[in-house]
Design a protein that fits this description.
It is a single chain. This protein is mainly α. Helix 1 packs parallel to helix 3, helix 1 packs antiparallel against helix 5 and helix 9 crosses helix 13. A two-stranded antiparallel ribbon has the order 1-2. The protein starts with a strand and ends with a helix. The chain contains 14 helices and two strands. The longest helix is centred in the first third of the chain and has 29 residues. The chain is elongated, with a radius of gyration of 24 Å. The protein folds into two domains: 126 residues, no CATH class; 153 residues, no CATH class.
């Protein structure tokens, strides 16, 4: 599911908080179960069994439905909340399972091992994953995902490939070679600190911007901060800010990126709207959809 911003909180970060909170609760509940080991009666285990039943037969299908709905192109907070609620219940399901396992096996070490094998990886894996090498080693996750999106749009990555995976390095390298982007370490280090992408589409866009009074400076084909800022201003002046960053492949793009531009997406999109004579003109949105134009 795509990331959605709630103020300053990314939905992915919110999910990590929920998972980590479930992990902490699991440790607390497990400790309480150990303390009350001899006092707990059999009937007190029934709530845990009820949670397991509820998860398997009601909430798990609802969670899966939420993810399928989002992948199908639906939007809205309901889909996101279904996913978060499902994840939250999943955490409590693991907690209940751990406590249940403790009373079933009557063995603290075995239960603790169960906790480490099933609960801790889910809680800590998201943090360990962030420490793995990523393309450009860029700390800004939204920029990294944006690069992955337009690499997919231009066929350098398959729709199911993840930009954060090591195999994506070859796709980035091929993109750099095809577009004349320097591959040396110093240049790569510079590009990791700014959201810069080089292509002929960006160069054409810069010509359009300058010709229409939006000064982007040097026409070098590099999507930098100035080009991004001027493109956003032009988009606002044309009153199609939302349309410029919407594609059917990512229905939550508006919430995810907010005022950020889509770099090459915008470059190619604007070239169709401006036309070769540099005038603000174009087809209706349905015919100028970015995703359709990139086939």
């Amino acid at each position: 599911m795509s990331a959605v911003y709630f103020g300053e909180i990314d939905s992915k970060d919110l999910g990590r908080i929920v998972i980590f909170g479930n992990f902490i609760l699991g440790v607390v509940f497990l400790y309480a179960a150990v303390e009350e080991y001899w006092q707990l009666e059999e009937y007190l285990l029934q709530p845990f069994r009820a949670i397991i039943w509820l998860y398997h037969y009601l909430l798990y299908p609802l969670r899966v439905f939420g993810y399928i709905w989002s992948f199908a192109g639906e939007t809205g907070e309901f889909v996101l909340l279904v996913g978060i609620a499902g994840s939250f219940v999943y955490g409590f399901f693991l907690i209940a399972l751990v406590i249940y396992a403790f009373f079933l096996f009557r063995h603290f070490k075995l239960t603790f091992l169960f906790l480490l094998c099933f609960v801790a990886p889910g809680a800590l894996g998201v943090y360990l994953h962030e420490t793995q090498p990523v393309v450009y080693e860029n700390p800004h996750q939204n920029i990294l995902e944006t690069r992955g999106d337009f690499l997919k749009a231009f066929g350098y990555l398959s729709p199911k490939q993840d930009i954060k995976k090591p195999e994506a390095e070859n796709a980035v390298l091929l993109f750099m070679i095809d577009h004349g982007l320097p591959e040396t370490a110093p240049d790569k280090a510079i590009l990791s600190k700014i959201d810069a992408v080089y292509s002929d589409h960006v160069k054409d866009l810069q010509h359009c911007m300058n010709a229409n009074g939006f000064d982007v400076g040097k026409v070098d084909g590099v999507w930098g901060e100035r080009t991004s800022d001027m493109t956003y201003r032009a988009r606002k002046s044309l009153d199609f800010a939302e349309k410029a960053i919407y594609t059917h492949e990512n229905p939550l793009a508006m919430r995810r990126w907010g005022a950020y531009d889509l770099s090459i997406y915008d470059a190619r999109f604007y070239n169709h709207f401006f036309g070769c004579d540099f005038r603000f003109m174009g087809d209706p949105w349905e015919n100028a959809n970015t995703a359709n134009r990139m086939q």
